[in-house]
Specification:
The complex is a heterodimer of chains A (115) and B (115). With 115 residues, chain A is an all-beta fold. In chain A, the strands form two sheets. In chain A, strands 2, 4, 5, 9, 10 and 11 form a six-stranded mixed sheet that branches. In chain A, strands 1-3-8-7-6 form a five-stranded antiparallel sheet, with no helix packed on it. Chain B is mostly beta strands and 115 residues long. In chain B, a hairpin with a 6-residue loop joins strand 4 and strand 5. Classes of the chains: A mainly beta (115), B mainly beta (115). At the A-B interface, strand 4, strand 5, strand 9 and strand 10 of A face strand 5, strand 9 and strand 10 of B.
């Protein structure tokens, strides 16, 4: 069964500090991996999408890495801001069928930035 | 202003009543999706539609129904048969039904509470 595990479940850091969120997956055959940011009570917004051949992808202060051999991804946030407080969701796609049933969602990491 | 809209933002329902959640998109996307989000869990797929007048069940379709009569609209009905309907419901769309190759765009969500 395809699975996506995210850690930690929750994280509290001070404004201005850096942090790294983890995503481990057992999805096969792998197609791509996405990171979403979800503000409380809102829909998720895409941060990055990485395919098998991409090791690193940045979007402003967000940098995602992918190690397809170990089936691990991380999302690094640099110089955190209060607006970074949100849940971060990892989504992994499998090639089978290509449809919506090929997406596996992680439970998310709840990040709180304190002033 | 392009995007996905969901209404209402908050919905309260008495046990035994059916309710319909609205989802509209003006992105000219072919595919639309409904997800359910519960605390501490990943998004779970309820129904999806790859094209007008066609839709498929997701992982947790029991107690829900949908229609896709227009490209821009994909309403979800939560029936009285759904045993635990209190949740946050998210609608999404993508350019095509081959969602593993296309970015999903999410609406702002509807929070349904059964009294």
């Amino acid at each position: 069964k395809n699975q996506v595990e995210q850690s930690p479940q929750s994280l509290i850091i001070l404004e201005g500090k850096n942090c790294t969120l983890q995503c481990n997956y057992t999805v096969s055959p792998f197609s791509n991996l996405r990171w979403y940011k979800q503000d409380t009570g809102r829909g998720p917004v895409s941060l990055t999408i990485m395919t098998f051949s991409e090791n690193t992808k940045s979007n402003g202060r967000y940098t995602a890495t992918l190690d397809a051999d170990t089936k691990q991804s991380s999302l690094h946030i640099t110089a955190s801001q209060l607006s970074d407080s949100a849940s971060y969701i990892c989504v992994v796609s499998a090639f089978e069928g290509g449809g919506a049933d090929g997406l596996t969602f992680g439970k998310g990491t709840h990040l709180i930035i304190q002033p | 202003d392009g995007g996905i809209t969901q209404s209402p933002k908050y919905l309260f329902r008495k046990e035994g009543q059916n309710v319909t959640l609205s989802c509209e998109q003006n992105l000219n996307h072919d595919a639309m999706y409904w997800y359910r989000q519960d605390p501490g869990q990943g998004l779970r797929l309820i129904y999806y539609s790859q094209i007008v007048n066609d839709f498929q069940k997701g992982d947790i379709a029991e107690g829900y129904s949908v229609s896709r009569e227009k490209k821009e609209s994909f309403p979800l009905t939560v029936t009285s048969a759904q045993k635990n309907p209190t949740a946050f419901y998210l609608c999404a769309s993508s350019r095509s039904g081959q969602v593993i190759y296309n970015e999903q765009f999410f609406g702002p969500g509807t929070r349904l509470t059964v009294l």
